[in-house]
Amino acid sequence: MKFTFLHSAVLLASLGSAVAQAQDFPTKTITMVVPFAAGGPTDTVARLVAQSMGIKLKQTIIVENVGGAGGTIGAARVAKAAPDGYTLLLHHIGQATAPALYRKLSYNANDSFEPIGLVTDVPMTLVARKDFPAKDFKELLAYVKANKSKVTYANAGLGSASHLCGMLFMTAIDTDLTTVPYKGTGPAMNDLLGGQVDFMCDQTTNTTSQIKSGKIKVYGVTTKARLASMPDVPTLNEAGLPGFEINVWHGVYAPRGTPKAIVDTLAGALQVALKDPMVKQRFADLGTEPVAESRARPEALRTYLKTEIERWAPIISKAGVYAE
Ligand code: MLT
C-alpha cells in the first residue's frame, strides 16, 4: 500500500486526537464496576474510593454492581469495555483465584486489564448467627464436625473471598458443610442476621459493625496478629487453625489498551484518594487501612496479581475445587 500524504495526515490527526483525549481526561462520568451485589465489603470499599477519586478527577464516578459467578461476570464486563478510562473494575483477591477456579474464563486476569493500583488489604472474620450454639472456636469446631452438612455456610460464589475462606476452612477441618451462594456477602449478611444461614467467613468491612452491635457472633480473624479494632477476638491461628491466614487485597483495573497517560491519571487520583482523611477514617472504622503509596501504582498491582495467581493455583488445585 502506497503511504500517501493523506495517510500521514489521517495518522497524525488520529494521534493528535488520542493525545488530546488523554490530556482532557476525564470529560464525562466514569463507571466503577463492583463484581458483587451492593451493600457488601467490596461495594463498601469501592464507594469510598470512587467518591474520593471523583473529587480529584472533578468527575462523578458511579459504582455499578455486577454480581454473579464469584465476581467473574463483573470482571468480564470490564475486560470487554472500551479502553478509554471510563470503565473501571474494583476487585479483590478473587481476580487471582478465578483463573484456577474457572476452566472457561472469558478473559485473562493478567492480560485483559491495565492495572491501576492496589487499594487495601482487608482481614476476614469467621462469624455466625447470634444464636449459633457455640461460645468459642473450639465449640464451633465440635458442633460443625458433629453436624456436618446440616450446618449451612454462606458465600458469594466460587471465586469470592468468602468462598475461598470457606474452602480452606472445610479442607483444614476435613468436613464438608452445605454452602449457600449469594451474589455478594451483603445479601448473605442479611440472612445471617435473620438466622436463615448458620455462618460465614467475611471481611471486616462487612462484619465489624454487626459484631460490635452483638447482632452476630465472631470466632476468629484470619490475620497473623489480633486486630486493633477487635483486640478480644483471637486469630484463627491461635484459636485452633495453625497458619490459617487470608488477606483480601483489593485493586483497581481498566481494560487492556487504556492509554498510559489515562492509566497514570487514574493511578494519581487513586493515590490521592488513599491519603484522603475521610477514606482513612472510614477504613479504620471498618478494620482496615489504605495500602502504602508505593503499592497504589500500576506496576505494583501487576506484579502482585501475577504472584498471587501463581500462589493460589496449587492450593486450589489441591482442594480439588473448580467450575467447568
Ligand atoms: C467476597 O465474598 O468475596 C466478597 O467480598 C463478597 C462481596 O463483596 O459481596
UniProtKB/TrEMBL annotation:
First and last residue of the signal peptide: 1-22
CDD domains: PBP2_BugD_Asp (cd13576)
Domain of life: Bacteria
Source organism per UniProt: Massilia psychrophila
Keywords, sorted A to Z: Signal
Pfam families: TctC (PF03401)
Classification via SUPFAM superfamilies: Periplasmic binding protein-like II
Family assignment from sequence similarity: Belongs to the UPF0065 (bug) family.
Matching InterPro entries: BUG (IPR005064), Bug_dom1 (IPR042100)
Protein name per the record: ABC transporter substrate-binding protein
